[in-house]
Amino acid sequence: MYSTRAQQRHHRSNPILCLAPNAAYQTTLLFDRISLGQVNRATKQTNSLGGKGQNFAIASLGYTGVSTRVTLLQILGGSTGTQIEALERQQGIDYITVHTSQQTRTCTTCLDTSTGSMTELVGVSEAIDPAAAAEFENTALEILQSSHPPQALALCGTFPPGLCPNAVARIVGATKSSKRTLVFVDAVKDIQPTLATGFVDILKINSSEVITLASAHCAEPVNVDLVQTAADLARRFSIGVVAVTDGPSTAYLVDTKSSTSYELRVPDLLKDLDYYLGKPADNCGKLVLNPLGAGDTCSAVMLNSILDDTTAVDAFALGLAAASASCLVLMPNCVFDHSAMQRILDRIAIVKL
């Protein structure tokens, strides 16, 4: 866990380098009922890490049980940045911090017990300093071009203002020199320069995101066939695997190396809640599912499984099971029970298309 350039140069290379430039200090609030325009008092509150890369690190730690699997490369500033680092040290997350002068954003999630709904309030991401953007890029390049590069580079989430998309593309381009670093992307906004490098091995996004990406490169209306759309993206950008989630119950995977596509059907947790929880549900069988960070949990478990030589489709199924299991844990985000994950995995149907 380092915050200075001198120390970063001697930092060990963990199997996964996770680019996490847009962190957040996360507050999750539980309410019996939310009334707009009224004073609402929470019944429970947690403060935790936020941001897709930070969520990725939490889920990786929970899945593997070791802190030497992932190194976070993050940009933090202000008192919220200090609080984020304190939480990471407390949880045993390995990180390198590039400091910026502006305050790191906050995110607040409101869970309504009466409706089971989630409302997320995302704070402003301030522009990072030019020096911080350059340091972020240079630090990533040093690690990727070292004598012991990581097995995988994970790019998670959006870029804060001030971090140029072309800089991220240059980082991804550095993986070519070693030819040993797998590139995993869970991002959409401003990701076109990165995709255009042709070095993305795995793209994992949701259904609306895959259509957004396809629309940016197509003059005609995009085909709503998600599998075909994902396959077209894979061919256009030479992506080995495109994994697409489509709501809580369906997902698709296109594997261009084997010219194979799959549909994955995830069970409805609420239809057999006691079974998936492994115990009778509280509150007369009612449970607020918390999907916050579920997609990041899926990414973390999927990539870690692939590095353990699991096939892409089986790794995706395991990631989906972990993501679903994390929804059963009200707070904090990206925490899941391994037994629940296995029970869900046992009921995921994988259909070859």
Automatic annotation (TrEMBL):
Organism of provenance: Coemansia aciculifera
UniProt lineage: Eukaryota, Fungi, Fungi incertae sedis, Zoopagomycota, Kickxellomycotina
Gene3D superfamilies: 3.40.1190.20
One Pfam family named in its UniProt record: PfkB
Matching SUPFAM superfamilies: Ribokinase-like
Protein name, UniProt field: Carbohydrate kinase PfkB domain-containing protein
Annotated Carbohydrate kinase PfkB domain residues: 36-262
Domain of life: Eukaryota
